[in-house]
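Hey, resending since the last one bounced:
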Amino acid sequence: MATNAQGGAGKVELLNFADPKIKTLHLTWFAFFLTFVMWFNHAPILADLKQALSLTDAQIKALLILNVALTIPARIVVGILVDKFGPRIMYSILLFLSSLFCLGFAFATTFESLALFRFLLGFVGAGFVIGIRLVSEWFPSHQVGTAEGIYGGWGNFGSAAAAMTLPSIALMFGGPEGWRYALASVGVFSMGYALVFYYAARNTPKGSVYFKPKKSGAMEVTSWGDLWLLILMNIPMYLALAMLAWKMSPAGVSLFSTTAMEAIWGGLVVLFVVQTHQVWRVNAEHLRKGVPEHEKYPFKQVAILDIAYFTTFGSELAVVSMLPLFFLETFSSLTPVTAGLLASGYAFMNLVSRPLGGWFSDKFGRRKSMVLLIGGLAAGYLLMGTINSSWPIAAAVILCMTCSFFVQGGEGAVFAIVPLIKRRMTGQIAGMAGAYGNVGAVVYLTIFSYVDYATFFYMIGGTALIGLVSVMFLAEPKGHLTEVDEDGNVHHIRVS
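The structure tokens again:
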């Protein structure tokens, strides 16, 4: 069975609500939007939070670190689960559980409880992976990049929406506890939307097959070389988690003791051994038997996309965190409010740049678009390293927004390719790439804590050049993917 492409490349009629795939796209990007509102709802109320609970600067920094800690393993685990159980039930469960964590954070009265619920809310960052699989099921190859870009870009805007709306909602409630009710309102709304999503969304179009991995627990590969590469690619994720633990120790924000840090490190070693055994268990048997030619796929593609997302999404998370302070300290005429507004232009670009990155990929080719966008990203950050107080503020803002276009366009291009590698493992591939984005954020933010602004931007630009070289080895998806359903029927899915 083969799917047929119709219509112009990249054209998605967003107002055609009678089209089931358009309805699904809107349901899905809004679910992702809510996850980002919950994930970053703390940012605009940090001042109120600090005052209400008499928190120290070190404790605030600890909350920021904890906010991204769980997301790395969560994206891997959720990627496995969505491939096995389907995106409809997984997105509904994730929204419901995250809303409970959001309510817990809203009404926490001690730093310890705040820290716990902030850590747990990192789980909501895995929602991105679910929607990637769902959107890929509904859109053909010539539209999937654009659709995934809309999903990711409009969903990512949730962090900016939280910053723009939650302070006003807190004022509407009024009083010293207004911020709590603003946060709680997000949790209540998300809980309701979990039910809406469950009843309105479907995993696949009517008559389509939802392909599942043959074995659960780890990503399948199709050659011995790819098996070793998969194991190697898992190591940076554990190193990032070890780095986070170090930052929470007395060497960083002193949330826990050196002994606790060492215990966490030991636990990470054990988890790596367990995961490696699981990877071997899932793959060794079918590799010994030999993988049919039509089921093979190059894991190299996944590794390259991981590196690309490390640079793109990793740098976005890091730069969004520091850009208001950069503007404030670089241009003495700015107030904190004005600096924050100017810096928000970087995140605001998500609305257009990520969809355009996906569209470029659909229209002009996957590899070519990646090379162009990663190259523009590298040049943008290298130029941002030259910004100083002598620059016109308008020129600095324009450069930051231009760089942001290439950053987020590159993110869109990455996930225009993810669904075209191996359909039954799209969730796992998306989860691994997404986790690498968070690894990048951890690495870049750690670098930022030791260097000045210019060096920080130069470091990102330098690593982006490594990403640029890697994407030159990306293979353009061509022809068809082959999948075999549970009844043994062979399906051909067009990817070009």
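The chain has one domain: 20-203+212-494.

Sorry for the duplicate.
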